[in-house]
Amino acid sequence: MSSPTETRASTALRQAQGSEAAGTTPAVHVAGLDREFRSKQGSVTALSGVDLDVAPGEFVSLIGPSGCGKSTLLRLVGDLDQPTAGTLEVFGKSARQARLDQDYGIAFQQAGLLPWRTVAKNIELPLALHKVGKAERAARVSELVELIGLGEFADSYPDQLSGGMQQRVAIARALAERPRLLLMDEPFGALDEMTRERMQNELARISAETGAAVVFVTHSIPEAVFLSDRVVVMSPRPGRIVQVVPVRLPGEARDDSVREDRAFFDAVAAVREALHGAPPPVARGVENR
Ligand SMILES: Nc1ncnc2c1ncn2[C@@H]1O[C@H](COP(=O)(O)OP(=O)(O)OP(=O)(O)O)[C@@H](O)[C@H]1O
């Protein structure tokens, strides 16, 4: 686990270098991945020939026009769907085995909390389902409510929380079993801009503190740049990777000061250029905010 003062980028770099040196397996390994959906109406090629490795501890965002296959790729990694062709490994295992081993947590745009359970009970749900003992569950929940800054709301119900607070609970629930990988599909898509930036700051801190790798789907270029070690730019359907933009931002932590930095603007411009370099219609479904 990394120290809170160590930047996530340096953690990821150190871990990537370490894993290379030690021959450690990547968090996610995707090679020649295809996904074709077939129906009576015809077939849709959602992904074609996708190659991607995510290092342990690395934060990677997927960005691209609407319908380019971002969610499909995330769902394949999360064993919620099966590829038509290609190789997909999570920590060197099949996606199914990684799911059974609770190697990853998932958070989507809808927080998906159970309204009849309190914050604490929602967070502890995966632990309860996996028969973790009561004392250990309580200890983990109290750690997590502190991590997400909702210690005072442990006994509140979801409808007593704002959208941002609910999303933090969903993230805590995804982290409950200390996954080495988090899969996030537009988790802040439904939030207002101010809350969204606050949540981005929190997620940057949480990912640095936990050292988990993250694969993050977003439509927002600045959000992708702010959070990521690398931004994966995808083409319109059939989704392919057109460019991978490395992000190097200064400072010890990703906080609001980073958003004013020249390196941040340069990386935003690089991602935007990569998107616009793809065949039209590239702008549809991609926000510049
Ligand atoms: N279950 C399915 N059956 C048929 N087609 C599907 C299915 N799931 C996805 N698709 C198609 O695959 C393509 C990629 O969809 P996907 O949801 O992965 O795109 P996306 O990049 O996440 O889009 P958005 O940014 O709008 O959320 C789309 O054309 C979609 O219609």
From TrEMBL:
Keywords: ATP-binding, Nucleotide-binding, Transport. SUPFAM superfamilies: P-loop containing nucleoside triphosphate hydrolases (SSF52540). Coiled coil: none annotated. Pfam families: ABC_tran. Residues 1-18 have a biased composition (Polar residues). Residues 28-261 form the ABC transporter domain. InterPro entries: AAA+_ATPase, ABC_transporter-like_ATP-bd, ABC_transporter-like_CS, ABC_transporter_ATP-bind, P-loop_NTPase. One of its GO terms (molecular function) is ATP binding. PANTHER family: ABC TRANSPORTER ATP-BINDING PROTEIN (PTHR42788:SF20), TAURINE IMPORT ATP-BINDING PROTEIN-RELATED (PTHR42788). This is NitT/TauT family transport system ATP-binding protein.
